[in-house]
Amino acid sequence: MPADDTPPHDGTARDGSGRDGAAGPAAPGATLDEPAGVWEGDESQESTAGEPVAPEPPPRSRAGRNLPAAIGVGVGLGALIVVTLFVYRPSFGFVVGAAALYGTWELAQALRTVSIRLTLTPLLVGGAALLAAAWLKDTNGLVIAALVTLLGIVIWRVGDGAHGYTRDAAASAFVLLYVPVLAAFAVLLAHPDDGAARVLALVATVVCSDTGGYATGVLFGRHPLAPVVSKAKTWEGFAGSVLACSAAGVLFLTLTFHQAWWQGLLFGLAVVVTATLGDLGESMVKRDLGIKDMGRLLPGHGGVMDRLDSLLPCAAVGYLLLSLFAPV
User: Where would one find the signal peptide in this protein (predicted)?
Assistant: First the structure.
């Protein structure tokens, strides 16, 4: 993949050297960038004789995002989800499948920078099959398809010899569980008659976590939440996520599913903790690989996996909690 010069969606801050403290070389997914909100050409834009004036960079937020692009992409993705859910619900499964398979490919390219080669053919074919099985045969189909895909992974890798077998097979199994299997829970959420409401409740609550944390973190953030993993996340931002998610959970569970307020509160708290851990988990993977973003497909966000990092684990948690609190 070509080098990426777009900012990470989480707005990771950098020190004066332009690095964030991550070990290892910069990978094809992205280059290590400048401090949040600071551009390389900020020292002077004045031209000297015969020298052109450098063009103005796109506007950035204090957290380092290209905010207009990020908002535009976010609105577009939200509209796509709403349209597929309410116009022809099975098409939502195709959207989930496309995102999951592209995210799998992004991870494969990122891992190649540290000489880990995923067994992409069984991963992509099996990933598509288990998403279809989740829609057609519910959790039983998901489990069977996942096991068959896992078996295909370990057998397929034999053809490339013994060198690196354990490393590559283990990484492929991890990616299978991390992306297609977790994405399948979004398909399971959408399958019941009220599936559109279930998916929107989950996605809106996750968005509240991201938006609430981003806004309060930019305005009031002072104390790092996990400085070893991400310098951009603060306890103040996490508090904003907790408040926003709790309110969203209570509103959705009481008004949409007619459940008790405390169930909505538990739902919101579970989502915010899961979303934060999912985001930090992917940040740790990127830091380990020495990259900034998983890709550059989504302006203002990075790659597809930079958007799925919190949604994937939340899909599983949301499915389990809604099945418990509001059974079909």
Answer: none
